[in-house]
Amino acid sequence: MTQRVLILEDQPFQRGYLANLFGSRGGVQVNACEDVEAAIALCACHSYDLVVSDLLMPGQDGIQFIQALAAQPRPPRLAVASTASRRMMASARLMAESLGLEVLGVVSKPVAAADVEVLLEALAQARPSTDAAPAQAAVLPEPDARQLRQAMVDGSLTAWFQPKKSLQSGRVVAAEALVRWRHPQLGTLTAGSFLPAICRHGLEGELLRMMLEASIKAQARWRRQGFRVPVSINLPPHLLEQSDLPDELLAMTLALGGTPGELCFELMENSTTRHVSDFYAGACRLRMKGFGLAQDDFGQGLSSVHNLVNTPFTEVKIDRALVSGCARDPALHLTLATIIALANQLGLVIVAEGVESDADLAVLRQLGCSQVQGFLISQALPPEEFTCLLDDEAPRADEAAQAALR
């Protein structure tokens, strides 16, 4: 299968050099251009698998190009090759990823043949892009509050579960509950298609209760098959402004036969309380009720070391922006090492999100990360498929007998 690569580089020698490096690989077709306008025009006319862009260019620069690239309906994957500082390239990467682009790597010039091999390997391993998600987002009309509530009641809005694997045992040890909508016309929709509407209509509290109930019921099903699986549930921090929320969540958990110690609420980084006292009060009271508590998306947005140290978290989830590419980016590697060392000193379970390559997985294992989740492990699954995954991973009788003899 031929991979199409576009190179944006204003220096003629560098442009030719990069074109030769990529073009000498079998199955790679290369185009190269010297300015942003030409690159955007080519992307509009052709479907590229990868765009390799410089940052420091006269006229429109690489940052402006990335912004324009992200505005396209189906943008290609991106790599950055520049003489800019590592921190500037890391910042450009975060900007690109926040715009929805998939960044395969950042490379310092002069680019070596080995760098090109790594990028092409990452391109080969990247999960196939699908046309379904953009089409869903384009045709899904804005649901109103009545439609969303009805979907919660009739089970169309439901919880799927993404497994978390231990880096010690290699087995599934926990799961994160993620909402999906089995839409009657559009099929299964991911949260990005409808979660903004849930937020606009003020239904996050109702969604939280629905996800809690679905998680407890799934745990009961798994227990009947011999598995105890802790489940994490997303909780927008602004809901902690409701002072009796911890009491309500505990009462609901006990009434449904759940166990607080097997449930963990992930405090999302994209919202906060109007008064910081509500945040700390709610966090403390959730822990006092026996629930686990995680800082979600650590390393991005509103999350901070201050909160991590001073809130009674039991778990920290490292944002995918710090995980993806850590094997080939020294700055990301150093940042991860610092975060993991701190979290280990605090006695926290450390979960890395967005793990999508064997190389990144190896780095996380070497640095002492506890658990991982991401497409390399598994996508989110309906409860029945998650059960099959647990069955597949269960030790066979002969393995158990051998372990007993050790």
UniProtKB/TrEMBL annotation:
The modification 4-aspartylphosphate is found at D54. GO terms for molecular function: cyclic-guanylate-specific phosphodiesterase activity. Keywords: Phosphoprotein. Residues 141-394 form the EAL domain. GO terms for biological process: phosphorelay signal transduction system. InterPro entries: CheY-like_superfamily (IPR011006), Cyclic-di-GMP_PDE-like (IPR050706), EAL_dom (IPR001633), EAL_sf (IPR035919), Sig_transdc_resp-reg_receiver (IPR001789). Residues 4-124 form the Response regulatory domain. It holds the Pfam family Response_reg. This is Two-component response regulator transcriptional regulator. It comes from Stenotrophomonas acidaminiphila.
